[in-house]
Amino acid sequence: MSNTPPTPDLELPDEHYLNATYGSGIRSWLLTTDHKRIALLYLASVTVFFFIGGVLATMIRIHLLTPGGALVTPETYNKLFTMHGVAMIFFFLIPSIPAVFGNFLIPLMIGAKDLAFPKINLLSWYIYLIGGGFVLYSFSTGGLDTGWTFYTPLSSVYSNSAVTPAVIGIFINGFSSILTGLNFIVTIHTMRAPGMTWFRLPLFAWAHYATSLVMILGTPVVAITLLLAGLERMFHLGFFNPALGGDPILFQHLFWFYSHPAVYIMILPAMGVVSEIIPTFARKPIFGYAFIAGSSIAIAVIGFLVWAHHMFVTGESTYAALTFSFLSYLVAIPSAVKVFNWTSTLYKGSISWDPPMVYALGFIGLFVIGGLTGLFLACLGLDIHIHDTYFVVAHFHYIMVGGAVMGYVGGLHFWWPKITGRLYPKSLSQFAAIILFVGFNLTFFPQFILGYLGMPRRYHTYPPEFQVLNVLSTAGASILALGYLLPMSYLIWSMRYGKVAGPNPWPATGLEWKTDSPPLTENFHVTPEVTWEPYDFQNRPDLGLAASARPLAPAHGDD
Amino acid sequence: MQSQLPIYPEQASNFAPHIDALMLFITAICVFFAAAITITIVFFFFKYHRKESTAIGIVTHEDSRLEAVWMIVPLILAMAMFGWGAVVYVDYRNTPHDTLDVYVVGKQWMWKAQQPNGLKEINELHVPVGRNIRLILASEDVIHDFFVPAFRVKMDVVPGHYNTMWFRPTKPGRYHFFCSQYCGTNHALMGGWVTVMEPSDYSAWLSGSSGGSTNPAVAGEKLFAEKACITCHVANGTGPSPSLNGVYGAQVLLADGSTVTADEAYIRESILQPNAKIVAGYPPLMPTFQGQLTEEQIFALTAYIRSLQSQPVPAKGYGIAPPTGKK
Hints:
heterodimer, A: mainly alpha, Cytochrome C Oxidase, Chain A, 15 helices, 0% strand, globular, disordered N terminus, disordered C terminus, B: alpha+beta, Immunoglobulin-like, 2 domains, five-stranded mixed sheet, elongated
């Protein structure tokens, strides 16, 4: 792996976390406690689940080409969307950015040698594998047809599919999340390099701190809730089944208490990624650092208080509905603050169109639509009509796929040179970002209209008047698939053939860029000392930029 | 009737125009913000495009006034959305008193509706135009949801308790209804048609469709005897349990001193979980009927109890709280 073709000026370092000096056999990977290698283990495993979820999504979109359903039986269709949701949410989206980039980058960004608990970090990957194993067992022995939300009493009594192994798998997987969150919080608190004060932390670290809070506080609730549903199914204990004296609405309260904040587990890290990319490629400090950092915490906290907005038409009390609608509108404000600050960061920047930047701007575009359509769903009167329709499907895909996955792919492009030491083809990746953006919008925008027209979610067959928009959506999905396959191909290609990147190709200001690419196992040759403010390009002669070529900043640049 | 590619469904209830107006209001605000942000980003993207490879940006310092503006302005707009949405929702959740009540039962995977005179329909619902209609929703198995896009209303149908929804159809016609809470294999087939008729057509339809309909109160009276309810709930108040004359719609005084309105949900709960609310002055004797009655039988019993509303209340009819003004 270290035998690289000669490049004119740059070569990979002799020793780094990937190469033979530290062992590169299968054993050295399966027993590693290096946060960077564990990150790559996660990268491989979440990619497997992304691929499974993606294949299922493809089948869903093909099936919906005709009103009667083109591909599969109703039972199978219900399993397709359920397994798509479970694979994507619990085994791709939730671990994706935290377990891959968080693991890889947090120690590097704060100048530490590893996470606080390296063995627990490896343990959490094995827990993820065991949980994933149970879920794959469920998928392959009868499948799962409850919807990813596992609403009772359908899941706990009536479903004939393999619910029990799936809820056990998700229960187990929860511990992986909890341990990862714990590791991040302890690491950020205790292992910062000299000079790395809280307000010099990269915003990526702030976002992960907020995410970790949600993981630790929320995950136990969903784990227990699903376990209770499983116990009701296996041993007929009456928690949620009204025939046994239970309350099916209680399940929804408990489930959404985690699963709404879980959306923030997905989107906050993506916001962290974008908050790194934008100042790097605008080459100026991020606008409103404290407000972006604070808004991450605000989102994590308020995000715990909005769960019952999923339940406006369950018959919950009008007062509860009013409260939860109000709080849901409040959580929109910190998200808006982030968008305004990112936009302002571009003002008077020196903006490059490098691929990560194209992805980041694509993220903002899609996240704005996803976030704004949340305002429709938080609106009590309007939610009566659009609840449980395709409007909801479109909205959360804009957040989770348009937002979180776009952020994830953007992050891949940004840190790929750090992770592998190599660059990928520039124009091809810019093209892929545009394909992804266009394909995404074509797939999901028609679904907003479908929803308002009244097409309910989770329908294997639909009235013919909905066909045109469904065909449009499927057409878009095929472009979207290309948008994912392209980066997968050229990134893999670049691992062997890409141009050697050097330590800081963009250049960027973070500590992770002050070490080799790929970094050595201990991350830094010497523990770094931080003497500069975050995203400061002006006072960083080491970056080799023309800091003096431009006049110094005026005292107030705001307009 | 509609264009080839409509963007909103027909407006056929009192709620539809309000909800569409709300939709337009929020859309206008959101389109404005989305466009403003997109245009700004694209403009900056080109205007500040890096010209020399080593150039850096000019530092702009944050400004708390600016931050305050873009927190407060969106907050005000959000509160306007919240307020308007709340008004529509509260209207929807507070059923008017003069409703025509139709019982609807959802089960995997069909809907049964029962008109006030006992006429039963499957996957069809006939209602007169211009009347306030209340649907009393019950489920035999899992959670369903009754959704009529043309009326812009839906409500979950939850096993174990009643939900109600109301609307006033404004335009005769036939409209889709759907189950919109995923309920298993044939969820997508669990739909049908609402037929909105002129009142005269509706009455003709009700009396003309003689499909062996039994008045639900009559069916309920029969059940009341069959299930031996009558043994304890003696009409003249001399039995071990309260007389049910005049109970429906009244305030019932409970053993713990509180009162409760004897509506459908209370009656249902008292049949299935008799010990949940004990009437003052009576011992907790009644066995549960959980699992022994279908939702339709509960509807019938409720209809019977409702028909006793105008019967004379016996002297020992306490349990019914002293009247406090109007009904």
